[in-house]
Write a structure and sequence with these properties.
The strands form 3 sheets. This protein has a 3-stranded antiparallel sheet, with no helix packed on it. The longest helix has 20 residues. The chain is about 35% helix and about 20% strand. It is an alpha+beta fold. The relative contact order is 0.14. Helix 1 crosses helix 3. The chain contains 5 helices and 7 strands, in the order αααααβββββββ.
C-alpha cells in the first residue's frame, strides 16, 4: 500500500474496509508494520505538543463508567486456517465454516457485512483461474492471503496488496 494509505491507517482516518485490509496485510508485512509504527510515533509526538483542554471534574469517571458498562461477550475459539486473526475475528466463524458462493467454475466468494458503502469480499480461487477482464468504479484493493495472484505481469504473493482504480482495465489470474 502507498505511504498515504498507511499514514491514514495509522492516524485512524482510513475507511473501515481499507482498515480491515491493512490490519490483515500487516500480519505479513514487517516493512509496512514499521512504517505504521513510525506514523503512529509522529502522531503521538504531535499530540504531545498540542494545547491541552480543560475537562469537567467528572469526565474521567464518566468515561471509565461507560467503558465498564460495555458488555464484552466471551470470545469463542476460532480456527483461522490461512486467515489472519483480524479476518477471523471479523468473520466470527471458523475458516472451514465460510459459506462460499460459486461465482464461476474454480472461483468462490464470500461478501462481508459491516463496511458502510464499501464492498469487502473474500475470494478463493483454484490455481490457473482467471478473473474476467474488468475495470472499477473507484479503488479496488486486493490483499493476497495465500498463494499467488498475477495481474498485468506483476506477481503478488501472501501479504502483497494490489491497488487499481477506474483507469485500470485488468484480468487477474490465480
Amino acid at each position: 500500500p502507498s505511504d498515504d494509505i498507511l499514514a491514514d491507517y495509522a492516524g485512524g482516518s482510513a475507511s473501515p474496509g481499507i482498515s480491515f485490509l491493512l490490519a490483515a496485510h500487516l500480519t505479513h508485512a514487517p516493512e509496512s508494520r514499521r512504517k505504521v509504527a513510525d506514523y503512529e510515533s509522529v502522531g503521538g509526538a504531535l499530540l504531545n505538543t498540542s494545547e491541552t483542554a480543560e475537562m469537567s471534574a467528572g469526565a474521567l469517571d464518566a468515561i471509565m463508567g461507560a467503558i465498564d458498562a460495555i458488555d464484552t461477550p466471551t470470545p469463542k475459539k476460532l480456527n483461522g486456517g490461512p486467515l489472519p486473526r483480524s479476518v477471523v475475528e471479523q468473520l466470527g466463524m471458523n475458516c472451514d465454516d465460510i459459506p462460499w458462493k460459486c461465482r464461476w467454475p474454480g472461483l468462490s466468494i464470500y461478501e462481508l457485512d459491516g463496511f458502510d458503502d464499501e464492498k469487502v469480499t473474500l475470494v478463493r480461487g483454484k490455481p490457473g483461474v482467471a478473473i474476467p477482464q474488468h475495470t472499477h468504479s473507484g479503488l479496488e484493493m486486493t490483499l493476497v492471503l495465500t498463494g499467488c495472484l498475477e495481474d498485468d505481469g506483476v506477481e503478488y504473493r501472501a501479504g502483497d496488496v494490489s491497488a487499481h482504480d477506474e483507469a485500470h482495465d485488468h484480468r487477474p489470474r490465480v
